[in-house]
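Course assignment 3, question 2. Fill in each field.
Student: A.L.
Task: Predict the tertiary structure for the chain below.
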Amino acid sequence: MSKEEFEKILIELANSIDVKINEETIYMFYQYMKEIIEWNDKVNLTAITDEKMFIVKHFIDSLTVSKEIEDKNTIIDIGTGAGFPGIPLKINFPEKKITLIDAVNKKLNVIRDITSKFNMDKLEIIHTRAEDLANNDKYREKYDVAITRAVSNLSTIVEYMLPFVKKDGIAICMKGPSFKEELEESKKAIEVLGGKVENIKTIFIENEIERNIIVIKKIKATPKQFPRGKGKPQKEPIK
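Answer field:
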């Protein structure tokens, strides 16, 4: 795909979800896609290697939360994988301070390699588990936004997310179509961890792909015993 074709598709799709792309950053989007697909032969980063679908399912999907973060300054992307949604958000909102964390360092090394060519400020990439970093005073309750994309069950993931969020900040969970049962089951966990569901927004990309954005507001401090270690949030979610 030529850069010109890429630019046309990216801007048209972004406009369709009411997101404006900064044209000065088109090169970064294009280069990131090309290098992730190239690296994918060596490191398993994504199952999506078709360039059109890469734009749709990685870049545009990541940007569906733009309205929720536009007035926020500090963001942590938990379980970023190959850099989604954190890197597309960083490219389009270069002024924001964004932290990416993941437990798989080889993926983060790829992100480090690619983004080192972009001269990005205020980007931190950390190889860690969320339950370890959330108990570090430098990171606990220091973020305006914690975000995850399709990572784990909702009642599990909020235990990893909310400890990072400062009071009056938000946790954004990006989910597919079958989220309602998860949401019902996670009510107790959200309450215990200091959150309250503030908003749920559904966006359709190309009238086919359904993205549900669950926004949880942090209304009080998370009790110190959370998040629990040794995989307990997944094995024994709060009920």
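Instructor remarks: The chain has eleven helices and seven strands. The chain has a mean pLDDT of 95.
Grade: pending
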